[in-house]
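FAQ

Q: What does a record look like?
A: Structure on top, sequence underneath. For example:
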């Protein structure tokens, strides 16, 4: 009998600043990259995956920046600690309570911290994955051109087979970021799947 492949699901940066109307870095649905899902579709499909029973471990990341964080120079203020925009989208809050771990990132003011590799809990997180014999990691959330993409590269660098769930993530419609991240993901051998590929109706 074939051994079951153990899988982890990681929801990236569900902060309201990225996905809620009026959020500091929320890409309006009408301006999203053509063919990509809306914010509500990302949330619905991410929730369906989280509740599907297909994943052995389930995680979330969250941005939590102090004042004057270096990222603010490029992207403006976002994910600022203890502000409404730093909180998770209301539709995802209950899922946080069931997650195996929440990876907070972006606390050091001088470190650009798109990737979850900069979360203080990254090493315990990877240890948990190893101890549970996780082989594959599936990512969904915001944004594949930035935080989600960099995090996918980090998991691949740890020798996990890494997948982006393409119909459950969005990108920022910036050609330079798109071109850079497409190249980085290809070099890291990150693959793409959809919820349909996973047999999840959402």
């Amino acid at each position: 009998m074939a051994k079951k492949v153990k899988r982890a699901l990681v929801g990236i940066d569900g902060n309201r600043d990225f996905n809620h109307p009026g959020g500091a870095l929320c890409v309006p649905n009408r301006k999203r990259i053509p063919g990509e899902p809306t914010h509500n579709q990302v949330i619905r499909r991410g929730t369906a995956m989280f509740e599907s029973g297909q994943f052995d471990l389930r995680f979330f990341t969250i941005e939590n920046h102090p004042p004057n964080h270096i990222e603010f120079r490029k992207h403006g203020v976002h994910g600022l600690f203890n502000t409404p925009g730093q909180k998770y989208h209301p539709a995802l809050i209950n899922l946080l309570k069931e997650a195996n771990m929440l990876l907070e990132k972006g606390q050091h003011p001088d470190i650009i911290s798109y990737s979850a590799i900069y979360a203080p809990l990254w090493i315990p997180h990877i240890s948990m994955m190893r101890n549970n014999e996780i082989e594959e990691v599936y990512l969904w959330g915001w944004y594949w051109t930035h935080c989600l993409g960099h995090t996918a590269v980090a998991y691949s660098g740890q020798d996990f087979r890494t997948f982006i769930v393409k119909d459950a993530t969005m990108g920022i419609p910036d050609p330079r970021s798109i071109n850079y991240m497409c190249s980085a993901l290809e070099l890291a051998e990150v693959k793409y799947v959809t919820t349909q590929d996973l047999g999840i109706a959402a």
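Q: Is there anything notable about this one?
A: Strands lie at 6-12, 57-63, 101-105, 134-142, 161-170, 191-193.
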